[in-house]
Amino acid sequence: MSALKKNGETYDPRYIKAVNAENCIGCGRCYKVCGQEVFNLVERADLDMDDDDYEDEGAMVMSVANDGNCIGCEACSRVCPKNCHEFERAA
Ligand code: SF4
Ligand code: SF4
């Protein structure tokens, strides 16, 4: 699926699929840069992960809350220091 730039050219967007919660340090950079309210910072314990690996109770991690809002700009990936974001093309 192609999307249109302002100048009328097309591009092939890749949309957010997931955040790798094991690598995420909860820095919030992707949350701040995304203008589409896709992300939500949650407690790591709320993700139903195996907490044995994480001694820091209350540690925060980024989650994808509204993937349908994503416009495929990939800005989130460019600011992430841990390369957490996975993308997919529209079906
Ligand atoms: S690709 Fe763009 S719109 Fe989609 S989640 Fe990342 S920053 Fe937000
Ligand atoms: S920028 Fe990367 S490390 Fe920081 S909160 Fe987002 S996914 Fe996690």
Automatic annotation (TrEMBL):
<dbReference type="InterPro" id="IPR017896">
    <property type="entry name" value="4Fe4S_Fe-S-bd"/>
</dbReference>
<keyword id="KW-0535">Nitrogen fixation</keyword>
<keyword id="KW-0004">4Fe-4S</keyword>
<dbReference type="Pfam" id="PF12838">
    <property type="entry name" value="Fer4_7"/>
</dbReference>
<keyword id="KW-0677">Repeat</keyword>
<keyword id="KW-0813">Transport</keyword>
<dbReference type="InterPro" id="IPR050572">
    <property type="entry name" value="Fe-S_Ferredoxin"/>
</dbReference>
<comment type="function">
    <text>Ferredoxins are iron-sulfur proteins that transfer electrons in a wide variety of metabolic reactions.</text>
</comment>
<feature type="domain" description="4Fe-4S ferredoxin-type">
    <location>
        <begin position="60"/>
        <end position="90"/>
    </location>
</feature>
<keyword id="KW-0479">Metal-binding</keyword>
<feature type="domain" description="4Fe-4S ferredoxin-type">
    <location>
        <begin position="15"/>
        <end position="44"/>
    </location>
</feature>
<dbReference type="GO" id="GO:0051539">
    <property type="term" value="F:4 iron, 4 sulfur cluster binding"/>
</dbReference>
<keyword id="KW-0249">Electron transport</keyword>
<keyword id="KW-0411">Iron-sulfur</keyword>
<dbReference type="InterPro" id="IPR014283">
    <property type="entry name" value="FdIII_4_nif"/>
</dbReference>
<keyword id="KW-0408">Iron</keyword>
<dbReference type="GO" id="GO:0046872">
    <property type="term" value="F:metal ion binding"/>
</dbReference>
<dbReference type="InterPro" id="IPR017900">
    <property type="entry name" value="4Fe4S_Fe_S_CS"/>
</dbReference>
<protein>
    <recommendedName>
        <fullName>Ferredoxin III</fullName>
    </recommendedName>
</protein>
